[in-house]
Amino acid sequence: MLSQAARSSRARAPRCITSSRYASHGAPHYNEPSGHLFGEKPLKPGEKRVKEPWENIWYVGIYGSMAVAAVLLYYKPDTSIQTWALKEARRRMEERGEPFEYKPDTPPPASS
């Protein structure tokens, strides 16, 4: 014979089917497509487009951040392993008294 808990769980429907949706607020709301670019109707001849208040802030923000990024990248310190190795090799060769620059002893003979 089944226990009381087993019988009651069999008798009721699963919660996911019977529960109501608390976070839904009806059908989705969106702007119907109008067929115009960005939803703006074409201007009549002689009319000037009026900017929205956020547009200038967006332009200053996006292009200003690009300019700051370009300056920061230009002045970024060189942290490559090749640069470090070149400085280290130069320092060690100078400590030993060896010349760092390559100078060939004699030019190769010209073949005629």
TrEMBL record:
Protein function: Accessory subunit of the mitochondrial membrane respiratory chain NADH dehydrogenase (Complex I), that is believed not to be involved in catalysis. Complex I functions in the transfer of electrons from NADH to the respiratory chain. The immediate electron acceptor for the enzyme is believed to be ubiquinone.
GO cellular component, one term: mitochondrial inner membrane
InterPro entries cross-referenced by the UniProt entry: NADH_UbQ_OxRdtase_ESSS_su
Protein origin, superkingdom: Eukaryota
Keywords of this entry: Electron transport, Membrane, Mitochondrion, Mitochondrion inner membrane, Respiratory chain, Transit peptide, Transmembrane, Transmembrane helix, Transport
Family: Belongs to the complex I NDUFB11 subunit family.
Localization annotation: Mitochondrion inner membrane
The organism of origin for this protein: Heliocybe sulcata
TM annotation in the entry: 57-75
Membrane-protein topology: Single-pass membrane protein
Subunit structure: Complex I is composed of 45 different subunits. Interacts with BCAP31.
Name of the protein in question: NADH dehydrogenase [ubiquinone] 1 beta subcomplex subunit 11, mitochondrial
Transit peptide in keyword set: yes
Region entry Disordered, spans: 1-45
